[in-house]
Amino acid sequence: MSDENTKYWYNLETHEVEQGYASPAIDRAGPFDTAEEAARAPEILRERSRQWAEDDAREDR
Asked: For the region Disordered, what residue ranges are annotated (predicted)?
């Protein structure tokens, strides 16, 4: 099991990368393995959302 305090998070309020549980859970996206990956969180979240929407549309057919 990984230690979540060594993971990186993207703060949705400040738009900054944080390590560990620096902010309340509601303000964080993650965890990510690297700070660079966490910095790309908005892009990653948009892509995942797009993929989920496509998957849902296929299931609705």
From this structure: 21-61
